[in-house]
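User: Sequence in, structure out. Go.
Assistant: Echoing your sequence, followed by the structure tokens.
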Amino acid sequence: MPDDTSALQLVLSGDPTLFAIVRLSLFMSLSAVLFATLIGVPFGALLALTRFPGRETAIVVANALMGLPPVVVGLAIYLLLSRSGPLGFLGLLFTVQAMIIAQAVLVTPIIAALARQTIEDLWAEYRDEMAAMNIGPLQRVVTLIWDARFSLVTSLLAGFGRAAAEVGAIIIVGGNIDGFTRTMTTAIALETSKGDLPLAIGLGMILIAIVIVINALAWVARRVGERYAG
């Protein structure tokens, strides 16, 4: 109980260390989702609206990549960004940028796979109508993405939830450096191992609150989409 009380005091008092970690975590996760969206949504639309040799294989691979082991992704990016790696000259290892890259790699397949399914379902519904109107490929993509915007928001929130809860990959490429690359999840792991439970519990409370808000937003987006479709 004392630990719980101390954790609540840290949250309510606006502890600078705690909220600096929260701000960094949110910035990193939102940035990763933004980059993943810019890649994943167009790629998902491409898979949904085009037919090419190996398309089914590409869909299977995209779906399989949704379950990428985070530590494997972290290791792969570590090897790429290390001094002896092909991208070592960029000097990104143990930086926030490296963690954003790791999270984007993990989130992109989720957004791509969900976007592909959403847009493909809409395409099956509107195919004949769009063909009759002689709508070109690019306009099809734009129209279907716009029409599916509420469902796609749900996909983005799912990606953000994955990014916000990530620890394995970012601790490898970020190093969990105090004041620079320490996030909510890596700090919880570290502080728990050190026995500093108030800070760990306080961060855990905020992380749970963020997850609840994400799920609430996803539910609202889904309801708005259903009402709009109706």
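User: And one key feature?
Assistant: The chain is about 80% helix and 0% strand.
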